[in-house]
Amino acid sequence: MGGADGSGTGASAVPNGQAVVYEERLPRRWMIATAVVLVVWVAYQASILLPEDSTVWFVILGFSTLLALVFNAVPISKRIYNRIHIRGGRLTVGRETIPVESLTVDSLREAREQPTDAEFVASLASRSREELAELQRRSGATRPPRLMGGGWSVPMGMDQIVVETSQGDSLLIATHHREALLDALTRARQS
Fold first, then answer.
1. What DSSP string describes 104-127?
2. What are the pLDDT digits (tens) for 110-148?
3. Could you tell me the sign of the dihedral formed by the alpha carbons of 117, 123, 128, 134, in that order?
4. Which has the closest alpha carbon to 173: 143, 149, 144?
5. Residue 142 to residue 140: CA distance in whole angstroms
6. How crowded is residue 119: how many other Cβ atoms within 10 Å of its Cβ?
């Protein structure tokens, strides 16, 4: 995994040892691949249609731009709502920022023990209907955690952790690199 300038995650201590810097970069392969395919398509059409049929080419260009937006809506949404930074003792997820010291140490420890999404689905599949009904009844009695950064739910392809603040709020954080984020949050909380 690379540093702050790499394509993976970066977690490093600032030389004075007082602050932790972490930045989670989201994958870009899908956006690059769709852009390349659409640019090649538009260039190919330009070589055939221009200059005689420029109106048709402009329609193809507009349609290709619309396709690019449709194909990349989820990655763009992830960049807006799920980009994670830890700097200067502050955790920023999307457009929301909170102080790291407002997170409880116990909730960070418990977040390491939370099952991944795949483990959770496997555990649900092994339960009986009665057990699932009881879980559903109990979960209806508690308030679900708030998704930090905004958005409707955790996007596909991302894992999630639940942490609590000292005020008692439960926060759900969508992440691509669960362990690296938890390591950075733990080190930032201890600094």
1. -HHHHHHHHHSPPHHHHHHHHHTS
2. 999 998 878 888 888 888 999 888 888 887 777 889 999
3. negative
4. 149
5. 6
6. 10
